[in-house]
Amino acid sequence: MHKKVSFISFLILFLFNSLLFSQVKENQSENQKILFKEIWGYVSLGEEGSFSADYPVTDVGHFAGFISSFSELAPVPKRSDRFPDFKGRLHLVTNLESKPQTHLMLDPKLPLRNKIIKQLVEQAKEYDGLQIDWESVLKADDENFWDFLKLLKKKLKGKMLTVAVPARVKKLEKDAYDYERISKIADRVIVMAYDEHWSTSAPGPIASIAWCKRIADYAKSVIPEEKLIMGCHFYSRAWNNEDVGQKAYRMYKIDDLINSNKVTNFKKSKDGELSFTFEKKTKITVFYDTVESASARCRMYADQGISKLSFWRIGQEDPKFWNELKVER
Description:
Layout: H1 2-31, E1 34-36, E2 38-44, E3 59-66, H2 79-82, E4 89-96, H3 99-106, H4 112-123, E5 129-134, H5 142-156, E6 160-166, H6 179-183, E7 188-192, H7 209-222, E8 228-233, E9 237-240, H8 254-260, E10 265-268, E11 274-277, E12 284-287, H9 291-303, E13 308-312, E14 325-327
C-alpha cells in the first residue's frame, strides 16, 4: 500500500514538474520574441490564402489597386470575401510603375488626376486605409506628387494614408520621394529597405544589415518615429555569370559569337531562316535569407528603436518566421 501511494505521489510530482518546466520554457520563448508596435504584411490579390489571421500582423496591405493602361482603377474585392477572420486594419495598396503614365496622372492641368483620386477614394471604402506605391514618380513631378497626396488625404476623410518610398541613405538634391515632405502628409511612410542589389546588378545581398542600418539611421532623422515603418523582404535572388542569352546582337557580332563558342550546330529552315545552338556551363549565385538571418535584421531594427516593420510579401516566407515576432500590447 505504501509503495502504491509513493508511486502515485511520484507520478503526480513528475507531471507537475513537467508542466512547470514546459510553462517556463514557453515563457522564455515568448520573452525572446522581438517586439514591435505594428507589423505590416503585404498580400497580393489572388494569394489571400497564404495569410493567416493567427500571424502577429496588425495591418495588411492588400495589393489589389491596379491601374489599367487606360488610367482606370480595377474593381477591388470585398474585405469579407478575402479576409473574413482578420481583425486588424486592412489597407488598399495601389501600384503604378509607368513613368509616362504617372507623369500624366499627376499633372494638375489634366482631368486624370481628379478622376483617379475619386476612384481610389471610392474603392477604399471597404478598407481602413489607402497606400500609394507609385514607384516611377519623376523628380520633376515632386510638387505635383505631394499635391496629389494632400488631395487624397483630404478626400479620405480620416482613413489612413500611407506611402511606400524607395531606400535612401541621405537626402537627395531633388527627390519626389523626399522623406520629410511626405511624412508631413502621410500617416505612415514605408521605407522599402531592400533591393540593395537587384536583378540586373552585380550579385550581392538584397538587404545587408549594415546597409539597412544606414537607411534606418537616415529615415529616423527625418521621419517621426510614430510614422516610420521599415520595409523588409522575404524573397531571394539568383544571378548567373553569363550574358550570352536573352539579348540582341548586331549582325557583325555574330561571327565572333560563333567562333568564341565553337558553334557547329547550324540550321536553315525551308524558308531560309538561319539559326544555331550551343551549350555553355554557367555558375549561379544566390543570395537568400533564413529564419535566423531575417530575425537578425528585425532585431537590429528593434535595437535601433524602430517600432514598426512591414514585409514584402506574405506567401514567400518560411511560416516559422512568424514565431520570432510579437506585437507589443
